[in-house]
Amino acid sequence: MRRTALAALCLVAVTGAGLTGCQSGGDTASTGSQPSSEQAKDTKATKDTKEPFAGLSGGEITERAVAATTGAPSLRFTGEIPDEESGGTLQFDLALDKKGDCAGTLGLGGGGEVELIKTGGTLYAKYDEAFLRAQSEGEPQADVDAVVEMMAGTWTRMAATGADAEDIAGFCDLDEVLGDARNGSSDATRGKATTLDGTPALTLTEQDGKDRYTFYVATEGEPYLLRLESTSAADPGSITFTDFGKPVPAGKPEGEILDLDALG
Question: Tens digit of pLDDT for each residue in 35-57?
Answer without folding.
Answer: 444 444 444 444 445 678 887 76
